[in-house]
Amino acid sequence: MEVFNIDYTLYVRDGEHEPKQATNFTPVIETAYFNLEDPQDIPAYLGIQLILEDGSVRSLTLPMTSNLARTIVAEEPRAVLLKTGYAPLVQKYIVD
User: Fold this and answer.
1) Rounded distance, CA 22 to CA 93, Å?
2) For the whole model, what pTM was predicted?
3) Which regions in the chain score pLDDT beneath 70?
4) Which whole-number Å values give the CA distances from 78 to 16, 47, 49, 72, 90, in the listed order?
């Protein structure tokens, strides 16, 4: 499956069906914060600019976890993940 953005929203395309909207936001990583005492291959925190469907922007600093898409939704009440099954795809989009 492929994840891509159009007009500040993320869509999922599987190649067989029409693209489906996955979120009402697009996350953009601005900064990666590393803990100097830990291995440097994975950041401890991410500075994310969250661009919502209406064009508004919110900056978040979140811990780098395997549930980052769900953490974004928990931190920003206007952010919506349209299907819980899309969370891993959104996570991959963020990390990539």
Assistant:
1) 12
2) 0.84
3) none
4) 30, 18, 14, 10, 16
